[in-house]
User: What shape does this take?
Amino acid sequence: MTPQPDKAGGSATAPALPRSPAHFGLNLAALGAALPAMWLFTQWRPGDWLGAMICGCLALATVIGSADLLWFGGYCLPTSGLAPTPVVSLSLSRVATRLLGLAATLAAVAFAYWLFPEYRESFYVEGSASFYAPCRQLIKRIAGPVLVAAPLYFAWADRHQAEHRDAYWQIGALLCRQQKAADTDWPVLHAHATGWLVKAFFLPLMVVFLSDNLRSLAGALKELPKLDMALFEFCVQLSFAVDLLFCVVGYTLTLRLFDAHIRSTEPTVLGWLAALVCYKPFNALISGSYLNYDDDLTWGQWLAPHPVLCMFWATAIVALLFIYAASTAAFGLRFSNLTRRGIITGGPYRFSKHPAYLAKNASWWLISVPFVSHAGWAEALRNCCLLALFNLIYFVRARTEERHLGRDPDYVAYASWIEDHGLLRGLGRLLPVLRYRPPAGPAAPVGRRNGRKRIL
Assistant: This one.
């Protein structure tokens, strides 16, 4: 803490920037390994986009995971819930009970995919080419390795986990009647269920998006020698690839081994609604039927008579998209919507609490140019109002996330630091509605990490 003089002539304690659990430079280095790995795979197996995705995700996770374990502590940190050295003897009974809990969890997810029409055809109709088909194909490829790795991981964790009554054990114990319902820690099971709900909804989406994106990225790469707008398209697809790589890895590796597990999920219905309406299938109703701000005029058509301005406009769009991608990369293994998995304070988050949302929403104004319309100024005004309403959804997302993360003392310190040092600190002073408001109520329990308080 740095003492600062207060108005009364004494001193006040200014919050320090908490240390980020993810190293931005390391994440970029891992990206530098993942992108060439995917490209080399596509040269070896052209058209195998799922294989390229698996190769890239493995390269990314290997670099970051190895560094987390060797240099940054990983499971040795108090926040992981694991001890650096074994604390109990291996119990095959406990391992089997946890594996049963995992199997029951996966069975519940499989049942949901079977039940809801959105997923059923993709996951259960062999040969289906519907939306989630790439995710079904991915499951077939990784099922064998996961079946081998899961017992080994649970056996290792069993010796390092002092508190054996985790959610997997409690589910297994309930099914085996080793534990009565009255003795069950239902808040732990609720947190487990909501965490898996986040994974079950978002991971298939990201897998499909990344699979499609790699196909588009390869196509854009082939078009590069033709110049024109090919470089712009390649940069756009590359920014999406970076974002989606970290998304897929983040939703997959929610493991205590890397201290990347889910600590808590968004506790409010408003927070869930604000996030879900931004994604398929819900966004089709919102952006298609109510907030459709797109006109038939593109920014390229609008600026076609002004090639120099067109170049600068394209550069601004690409810059915003890469800020958005870099914001996702800052999370490393910890990216996930609607969850708290450690407070990220590095990379673009060193300058703003919501760099991804700011960059994404600003890019939409440049891409859609709603303020220009063939139909006249009234239509342009209507489009601007619709996009502003869509921006408002992201403002609500930001506020609900702040309330959720604000249960972590590190986030309160981080947000307070940004208020005084952030890139847009002047905007918050001009518009008080944008300023951070710490949540009321007791703070969450904390542990210690490198001399700083950490959420348990």
